[in-house]
Amino acid sequence: TSFKTPEDISTGNLLSWPTVVSGIGWVKAWATVDGYFWNSIKITVPAVLISTAIGALNGYVLSFWRFRGSQLFFGLLLFGCFLPFQTVLLPASFTLGKMGLASTTTGLVFIHVVYGLAFTTLFFRNYYVSIPDALIKAARLDGAGFFTIFRRIILPMSTPIIMVCLIWQFTQIWNDFLFGVVFSSGDSQPITVALNNLVNTSTGAKEYNVDMAAAMIAGLPTLLVYVIAGKYFVRGLTAGAVKG
């Protein structure tokens, strides 16, 4: 449909092949959503990288540092995984207002990092507990400190689970609509919100080719991530399944 002309759509079946292939729908769609597309890039990339990095450190600390209250801390993080989006909207909105980040892309980055930490920490912690304790003890005997072990031994072994977190977080953040529509406005909105506004507009003639082209533009990044890195996601999920 995105390659059809409006006339072709109005006179034929939406599922039929276009009689004349036209790229005008894509041109109009990109002109409408290009700014919001880059907003999503500016939100997703830093949020994915920050939440993955902090999750790796959290998972390492919870796996190899048995401090008092570590199990309680991990339990609270697990509880965060089961909190629905709706329960954090009001406190998050209040917090962003106090921080001066309301209706900004930076505020959305902050929200996605905080909400995603429970999941990334869980992924890394479950992966790290499968690493033999003898490896850590040997590194300590050689004089390696706590964070030196993390940087030089644990992180190089973490590629599978890093890929899982990167793909998981990218998918969740890029496809998010609720946080985007609540915590952003105007030119700071992500592409999911812009797509909703475009499709549901009630002014002017309905251009289904533009709507479908915009939907394809919004969905292509996630599709490309899974096509290119999907195999690493499956490997990472099973990499820490066996201890020892």
TrEMBL record:
Q: ABC transmembrane type-1 domain: which residues?
A: 37-229
* Compartments where found: Cell membrane
Where is it chiefly localized? membrane
Q: What InterPro entries does its record include? A: MetI-like, MetI-like_sf
Tell me which Gene Ontology terms the entry assigns under biological process: transmembrane transport
Pfam families per the UniProt record, alphabetical? BPD_transp_1
Q: Does the keyword Transmembrane helix apply?
A: yes
Keyword Acyltransferase applies = no
The entry's keywords: Membrane, Transmembrane, Transmembrane helix, Transport
Give the transmembrane region(s).
Answer: 43-65, 72-94, 106-128, 149-170, 212-234
Q: How does it sit in the membrane?
A: Multi-pass membrane protein
Cite a GO CC annotation.
Answer: plasma membrane
User: Family assignment?
Assistant: Belongs to the binding-protein-dependent transport system permease family.
Q: What is this protein called?
A: Carbohydrate ABC transporter permease
